[in-house]
Structure of Argininosuccinate lyase:
Amino acid sequence: MTQRQETKLWGGRFAEATDGLVELFNASVPFDQRLAEQDIRGSLAHVAMLGQVGILSGEEVGQIEEGLEAILEDVRAGDFEWRLDREDVHMNVEAALRDRIGPVAGKLHTARSRNDQVAVDFRLFTKEAALDLAAKTRALRAVMVGEAEKHLSSGAGEPVILPGYTHLQVAQPILLSHWFMAYAAMLERDEGRFRDAAERMDESPLGSSALAGTPWPIDRHATAQALGFARPTANSLDGVGSRDFALEFLSACAILSAHLSRLSEELILYSTFEFGFLTLPDSHTTGSSIMPQKKNPDVSELARGKAGRVFGNLMGLLTVVKGTPLAYNKDLQEDKEGVFDSYDTLSIVLRLYGDMLPKSTWHAAVTKAAAARGFSTATDLADHLARSGVPFREAHEVVGGLVGLASRTGRQLWDLTDEEVRAAHPQLSAEITRAMTVEESVKARQSYGGTAPEQVRAQAEAARTALS
Ligand code: ARG
């Protein structure tokens, strides 16, 4: 970043130069140079419109356009000289235009303010980021559905069975595919949130000018259309003063992060030696500099940890916005870094999970054995009794008694003797308790959205169709 001194573009009323530390504190160019493309696109749309309505001559428009195009090329090539004394992306571009084409550059800012300029640049960026994360979320969802399909038949053609938990206590057996489809369902809504947000922010604030609109005969519909927005914003104060589009984007990011963090937590837990449910690929795990045996789930831990900063970005901007009077305040300059950071963070996490999940190996025998432990079929036994007319509450009590007995004597339900089972309820027998396998348990859960293989297959098929 170059540090020089020249008269500010806004320097007319100032007698003394800006204090060096103020300049440093005030500048946003270190981070908002990322908006250069959007800024130049915005300027091109604005100047074309100024020509169309007759505010600038065709010749002036041509000179400005040519200059802006050349600057865009420099930016893309990395040849643009970003200057801190020029404060932000907008004044860097405008001053560079003046350096290049002379005083006519000063006509570009007719009927425009940096307030509507930054608002339009940042909306363009955020809308593109929302649509990009929607697509990346969809890609990960497709990977989840692929994993669900894959694990509907393990080596022996049988679906992989996983313990389902509540309170992290074994609850009931489920299909691993069912678990994948649960995350696919969350990701589907995450994608929807990005698309909804993109649609709501699809309005151009350009032409709101400083805050009150402008006396110049501008055509806001034309610039909105040229920039690919559905329409211009309807109120100039709102156009320059609102950042809920960024808040909505950050909130969709935060919710997606929460989902990816839960997934991370499960993968971290299930890949431990103690659980042993899956092995993460070497390509996506790391070692320890002291303990030779270690294989650490760093990707998942970082994905879980980064949820903290993604949530923080949302809280940060909410806090920035909450006390600011209408319309623009410099506080709003703090809106950008969090959006960039959440966008970058999620772009990489989504990609990493898309690569890592298909390379992970699930151990079907281990997960099935784990699913059978912890009396996971006790509900099936209670349901069985209830089907023969015993009120469910009573059946629950009876089976609870059997679980207590087995648990006190270090056994599973299927280890209980026929006498013990019959003593608990005359309509029960050891034959029945032994028939309560995890396979039968999952097969029985045929309710819509349940874990029976047919139901999970239907979920996966519906998702496939929706994705194609
Ligand atoms: N760099 C500023 C920002 O990001 C641009 C708008 C400045 N407007 C102003 N009135 N100072 O918010």
Notes: The pocket of arginine is lined by residues 28, 32, 88, 114-115, 118, 328, 330, 332-333 (CB under 6 Å). The beta strands are 161-166, 169-175, 203-204, 231-232, 278-279, 361-362. The chain is about 60% helix and 5% strand.
